Amino acid sequence: MVQGTSTFPITRVKNSRRESVDFDNLPFGTVWSDHMFVADYADGAWSRGKIQPYGPIEIHPSAKALQYAVSGFEGFKAHRIPTGECAVFRPDMNRNRLNRTAQRLMMPEVPEELFFDAMRELLEVDKDWLPDADQGALYIRPSYFGITPTLTVAPGDAFRLVIMTCPVGGYFSDDISLTITQEYVRAFPGGTGSNKLAGNYAPTMLASALAQKQGYHNVVWLDGVERRYIEECGVMNVFFVIDGTVVTPPLEGTILPGVNRDSAIQLLADLGIPCEERRVSVDELREAAAAGILEEMFGCGTAAAIAPVGRLGLEDEDITLELRSDSVANRLKAELFGIQTGTIEDRHGWLMRL
Ligand SMILES: Cc1ncc(COP(=O)(O)O)c(C=O)c1O
């Protein structure tokens, strides 16, 4: 994109809703910025795409997305850095993951130029929606789905990419409590756990609701075959600190390859903290807790960044984890937040500055 010109036609809102939003108390994912980007793929080609007011879109009730969940999405954040610029955190990783999801769903690839031009121009149009670093971040949600209105179980030939954004609050939240679910699984070998399909999420809601009914925030997912090994927690990747070493389950096809997981592994190496990617069983956790060497557990993902776990429910007991201010989770969180908000050097070239 040439500075000052726009690749896409823009229809602006008549009245911005920006002033009615309390940026010091932003919720997650309920307040949408004024505009969104929409592009369709049909007859073998992408339309030019357009930026228009955020709002309802027309879709046939028989669309593949609604009937058969031919739908994938992404989620990542932009922060305000000290120069006042907007810095998007590793969007290339999300664009690549969106295309791996598209491939799994037999949807056409989203071209690099389309993805990045759309993102840049949408963020430019809604630049007033970027919170200050201490208020939070702008969450970016590309959603990509099949719109062919026929009932055959096939991907169809028409697709829509919508990119929307919402300002979200800071992630310095309290610790969370989780419980292992033996009854439900999120993923299994040969399934779609490593892709970001919309259809991966609907079946998890019952398990989460049951956990909440028991007083936990969410569940810990076990592997779908033996139901012994920890895979993820809620909608986050999971890390443990066992006897001074950080451990996280390996990417073997059932775990979502989180951008924050990847970043955390790199930052741990930078900080000189040993980290292993290996399987962790429930039995190992139980034994480590009994031996007093289960030092930490935390979730890791875009929404919460690093979420320390204070209580872990196993079948017959709750493990309470000490929350120290000098924990690995806190050190990691500070490092990640510092890089994202431009107060720590972006030594890995992770920020796309706009
Ligand atoms: C199931 C699941 N695992 C892990 C993650 C973390 O991925 P990321 O760090 O890319 O946000 C997410 C999404 O945020 C997720 O939905």
Structure description:
The protein is α+β, with helices and mostly antiparallel strands and 354 residues long. The chain folds into 2 domains: 18-169, D-amino Acid Aminotransferase, Chain A, domain 1; 176-340, D-amino Acid Aminotransferase, Chain A, domain 2 (Alpha-Beta Barrel). The chain is built from 7 helices and 18 strands. It has helices spanning 64-68, 91-104, 112-125, 205-213, 259-271, 282-290, 328-340; strands spanning 35-42, 45-46, 50-53, 71-73, 76-80, 86-89, 136-146, 159-169, 176-180, 218-222, 230-233, 236-242, 245-248, 275-277, 294-301, 305-313, 318-320, 351-353. The strands form 2 sheets. Strands 1, 2, 3, 4, 5, 6, 7, 8 and 18 form a 9-stranded antiparallel sheet that branches. A 6-stranded mixed beta barrel has the order 9-10-11-12-15-16, surrounded by 4 helices. Strand 15 and strand 16 form a beta hairpin. It is globular. 40% of the residues are buried. The mean pLDDT is 96. Pyridoxal-5'-phosphate is lined by residues 75, 232, 235-237, 256, 258-261, 301-302. Pyridoxal-5'-phosphate binds next to strand 12 and helix 5.
